[in-house]
Each structure stands twice: as structure tokens, then as C-alpha cells.
Amino acid sequence: MATLNEKKTCSQRMENFQRFLWNPDTGQLMGRTLINWVWISLYYVAFYVVMTGLFSLAIYSLMRTLNPYTPDYQDQLKSPGVTLRPDVYGEKGLEIYYNISQQSSWDGYIATLQNFLSGKERAVVCKQDMTV
């Protein structure tokens, strides 16, 4: 064998590596005996069992605090439901533009609003609960 100061050849390095993997003189596999490998394996199995138990306990406690029948986040106001109506303006889309000096530019909007409000009651309730 080469000493520490000498440069090792490739065959010497391979021989040392093979002896590291399996040493037939001492019965060691990668520098450890069979009983050492058993203890290391048991330690890691126990470690991962404990870690799995802690993770499961955390998930269980989280799931116990959540109610499946109520939403997690709620706004202060209730949802208004559907807020968009079908396209009643045709080619114009939802853009509202008009010329105040030309009544014909906003006549269509007035007709649409009157049509929409025709099904509503004519009574308007004021703050003092008076019907106008």
C-alpha cells in the first residue's frame, strides 16, 4: 500500500474503495457492521414515524377547527347575485356615450330604462317611511 505522501494509482484507489464497500476481514459494509446498520435503520424509522404522527396531529387539529358548512372568508355585505344583464344595447356593448345636444343619441337609453323599470312598482319609499 502507498503511504500518505505517495500518490495512489487508480488500481490502489479502486482497491481502497472496494475495501470500503465490503471489508471481509471485519465484516463491515461501508464502514459499519450489520448491527450498526440495524440501529441506524431503526432510528430513522422511529424518527419518520414520529414526524408523520406530528404532521397528522397538526392536520387533524386544523380540520377540527374548520366548519365544512360555512365559508372560510365572508365579506361584510352579502353577495348581490347576478349583476350583469344580457346585452340590450346591441353593437354598442356596455359603453354608454351620448351627445347632450342631440336627443336622438340618448333616446335609446331612455327607452331601455323605461322598459326595465316598467315591471317595478311606482312607489318609492323615503327615509321617513313615506310613500311618494
From TrEMBL:
<dbReference type="GO" id="GO:0007155">
    <property type="term" value="P:cell adhesion"/>
</dbReference>
<comment type="similarity">
    <text>Belongs to the X(+)/potassium ATPases subunit beta family.</text>
</comment>
<keyword id="KW-1003">Cell membrane</keyword>
<dbReference type="GO" id="GO:0005890">
    <property type="term" value="C:sodium:potassium-exchanging ATPase complex"/>
</dbReference>
<keyword id="KW-0630">Potassium</keyword>
<dbReference type="GO" id="GO:0006883">
    <property type="term" value="P:intracellular sodium ion homeostasis"/>
</dbReference>
<keyword id="KW-1133">Transmembrane helix</keyword>
<keyword id="KW-0735">Signal-anchor</keyword>
<keyword id="KW-1015">Disulfide bond</keyword>
<keyword id="KW-0130">Cell adhesion</keyword>
<keyword id="KW-0813">Transport</keyword>
<dbReference type="GO" id="GO:0016324">
    <property type="term" value="C:apical plasma membrane"/>
</dbReference>
<protein>
    <recommendedName>
        <fullName>Potassium-transporting ATPase subunit beta</fullName>
    </recommendedName>
</protein>
<dbReference type="InterPro" id="IPR038702">
    <property type="entry name" value="Na/K_ATPase_sub_beta_sf"/>
</dbReference>
<dbReference type="GO" id="GO:1990573">
    <property type="term" value="P:potassium ion import across plasma membrane"/>
</dbReference>
<dbReference type="Pfam" id="PF00287">
    <property type="entry name" value="Na_K-ATPase"/>
</dbReference>
<keyword id="KW-0472">Membrane</keyword>
<dbReference type="GO" id="GO:0030007">
    <property type="term" value="P:intracellular potassium ion homeostasis"/>
</dbReference>
<feature type="transmembrane region" description="Helical">
    <location>
        <begin position="37"/>
        <end position="60"/>
    </location>
</feature>
<dbReference type="GO" id="GO:1902600">
    <property type="term" value="P:proton transmembrane transport"/>
</dbReference>
<keyword id="KW-0633">Potassium transport</keyword>
<keyword id="KW-0812">Transmembrane</keyword>
<dbReference type="GO" id="GO:0001671">
    <property type="term" value="F:ATPase activator activity"/>
</dbReference>
<keyword id="KW-0406">Ion transport</keyword>
<keyword id="KW-0325">Glycoprotein</keyword>
<keyword id="KW-0375">Hydrogen ion transport</keyword>
<comment type="function">
    <text>The beta subunit of the gastric H(+)/K(+) ATPase pump which transports H(+) ions in exchange for K(+) ions across the apical membrane of parietal cells. Plays a structural and regulatory role in the assembly and membrane targeting of a functionally active pump. Within a transport cycle, the transfer of a H(+) ion across the membrane is coupled to ATP hydrolysis and is associated with a transient phosphorylation of the alpha subunit that shifts the pump conformation from inward-facing (E1) to outward-facing state (E2).</text>
</comment>
<comment type="subunit">
    <text>The ATPase pump is composed of two subunits: alpha (catalytic) and beta (regulatory). Interacts with alpha subunit ATP12A; this interaction is required for the formation of a functionally active pump and targeting at the plasma membrane. Interacts (via N-terminus) with alpha subunit ATP4A (via the P-domain).</text>
</comment>
<dbReference type="GO" id="GO:0036376">
    <property type="term" value="P:sodium ion export across plasma membrane"/>
</dbReference>
<dbReference type="InterPro" id="IPR000402">
    <property type="entry name" value="Na/K_ATPase_sub_beta"/>
</dbReference>
